[in-house]
Amino acid sequence: MHRFIDLTLTGLTSGFVYAALALALVLIWRATRVLNFAQGAMAMFTTYVAVSVIDRGGSYWLALVVALVVGFVMGGVTERVLVRRVETGPPLNAVILTLGLFIFLEALAPMIWGGKTRSFPAHFSIVGIKVGSSHINLSPFDLFTLGAVVTVLVGLVLLFQGTNLGLRMRAAAFAPEVSRLLGISVGRLLTLGWALAAMVGALSGVLIAPVVLLSPNFMDAVLVFGFTAAILGGLDSPIGAVVGGIGIGLVLSYIGGYMSPDLETVGALVILIAVLMVRPEGVFAAAKQRRV
Amino acid sequence: MTDTTSEPRAPAPDVAAPTGTTPPPSAAVGAAATAGIAVVALALLALLSQVHGKVAPWGIAGLAVVLGVTAFSGRVTLPASPLLRHLLIAAVGGALVLVFSDHVGTFSDFQIAQVAYFVPAVAGLNVLTGHNGQLSLGHGALMAVGAYTAAVLMTHQPHVAIVVLLVAAVAVTALVGAVVGVAAARLRGPYLAGATLALAVALPELATRYRSILGGEQGLSLRTLSSPGWLSPSFPPERWLAWVGIVSGLVILVLLANLMVSGRGRRWRTVRDDETAASLVGVNVPRTQVNAFVVSAACAGLGGALYGLANSLANPAAFTVALSFGLLTAIVVGGVGSLAGSIWGAIALVYIPHLTNSASDHYKLGTSVKGNLPLAIYGLVLVGAMLVFPEGIQGGLRRLGRAIPGLRPRAVERR
Amino acid sequence: MADRPLLEIEGLTTLYGAVRALDDVSFGAGEATITAVLGANGAGKTTLLRTISGLVRPRRGSVRFDGAELTVLPAETIAGLGVGHVPEGGGVIRELTVDENLRLGGLLRRERAGRGAAEEIYELFPPLSSRRRQPAFTLSGGERQMLAIGRALMARPRMLLLDEPSLGLAPIIVAQIMSLLQRLRDDNGLAVVLVEQNARSALSVADEAVVLNLGRVVKADAAAVVGADEGLRHAFLGF
Fold first, then answer.
1. Which domain holds residue A62?
2. Complex prediction ipTM
3. Which of A85, A104, A220 is the closest to B376 by Cβ?
């Protein structure tokens, strides 16, 4: 029982991080119908930037803010300069483009910062909180992780549902042509969408780095998990992304704990294939009519 | 007379839409001209093969360029039957490369072998993506299957004939390809890319898991290939490796080329272009997808086996996601769907790391730069190609060919 | 009355590939005027509206709205100048609620808060009022059309482009919409460019009429004149 609780807590914490990455993928998909394969690599890159801030004496909070800002800028620039050109063409081109960016960033990072695995400071204790006489698998840093992701989620909900800007962004994503007729600068909002998504992705990188250690490939698995979660939840559904992320986190934690840690990635692969074969539109896809 | 050439829309790569050509010479004259050119070429080749030193390789390369230009200019009559045409091109090309390999040092032979083991893998991926529309990021993992199959077989049967080895690798990888292909058949575009990416990330872990059979991190070693008895004892093993690779590569290219002009190839392209329409005309879409996947997997398996033989090793580190990315870059560089472009792509895969290594050493860039430069370049190439050059080298050459007056490509009806 | 029409179209030519969807189209539409654009399917009516609103760039020609040249402006800017375009089918955003669709329309207008303006629309279209919070895909065809028009009106446009607003609607609702347009024309000076397949009903409300055939203007005159031309009606308008 104790083991189950421990695994559940670990799974929850990582699940929230996967949810953040899945959310980034979904935001971009909804806005531009592009799957940003480079999302993990971008998050890796911003995490390295954050760690260099810390190396140079900056505080954790400064590093976090820098990572978010750099992520924001990277996302916006990527959409405006690169993705904009392939948004209208065959989808294969956009896939290859983001893959190219993925490859480039994962090669560039070790050229700048070296390829060796290193640690990322957590700023909060990663020792489990004491409950009664033993420690549970929930540390102050885990609580921070949960809190940060929840804050971002709440912020995004408030933005999209409660502000005019969010309304415009949703309209631009759902119906770009009609939105233009209503005076909405669709192009600028797509750029903003990418920027926000990349910022959320950057957060996920910083949150998981202390746990899995920093290396140029450290976000590869997270990308696969986030991708699986996004597909599981339905690429059009932000709620689905979050629920999917938490679900994947839990399931993988149980697989790793009860079966073998080596099987986690394979487990995600199996889940992915299963979802894609049985219900490719995702568990949360609303019975939406096709937009005319 | 002026040719009125309408700029062909090129929806499918490697399809030269019918353009206006100069009226073909009468059949007899054409055949005579071709025969004459062939005789002259052979004579030159024989002459060059007797020459020693640097002249020979350059001469052969020059001859190859001239023949290539002549063949594609439409002024010679190549055989109408696709099979004969492909065999002729393969034979001539093969002869050129074989003689070429005789006159270069063993290191260059090894590089030719390297190109040769990439050619089947790149070509297989090219037809899968270009002619059937499925983008796979897992072909590096499939190459691993081929390499490991060869290694395991060789471990248990050290003196197995090379043909058996290659056939076994192809068969096993084709089987794996069938399994993956069934799952992949239902996926499209980015979903397929994501799923195969997950495969490429997860598969190396299997090798480390099953240590006893698959050798874990160290991998399995393969016995170095020695040249057969009927060649002179001083024949370098690298050259034999290159020859095996060249012949295998040509066989694959000819088979794929014939496949692509056949009815089956047409079916692949129909599915690629419009699945609904394809199923309406009676094409079994899932089966087509699986078949395409199996064929490309078989090619990757062959490439993987040759890779293992060339490097005498099959280990997880050689078959990471980076390899799949390299293959993707190779098909884009050559022009997605272009078989001739596969050769360019394979050359790029061998020579870009070679060049970056030399440059890194020369400019004394650190190891982390040196190791990652090829991948950085691949990434830039992919991004750049999508922005500027979706057609790759072969597409660029074709466009160049069209632009030069008097050098129109033959009207090849490939649909 | 202004000394030049609000909308001046001159020599407008739009191509779709090799097809001349619009071929040297010229006419004018004034303030406080309802101009009907008529013709068979494929005559170029929708392309005309899309070219005016900036979704499509013409090959040649000019579109001047209150003196401003529209053919060089992006669609979003044109909307900001006071040109509202209700596309065929309405273009209601199905995933958003009725209220959100209306609010969206009001974002263009800066002088007044959205809430109050929405109330006006709800008064104009009572069926929408009871469905404010419902997602737009739950609305019937007629309600969606009302929502689309209401949304366009939220921005207080000076000119409204309507593409087949009566398509698939019950005659009662069509009549409602037509009389609304006339009211807006009289009270607010709204200029309306109305594309309609149903030429008869369009001619009954319009002041001016332009008849298109295969991208060309066949006739541009007062609606009454066009309606009286039997030969024209038989040839191009189906009655």
1. 19-114+160-278
2. 0.90
3. A104
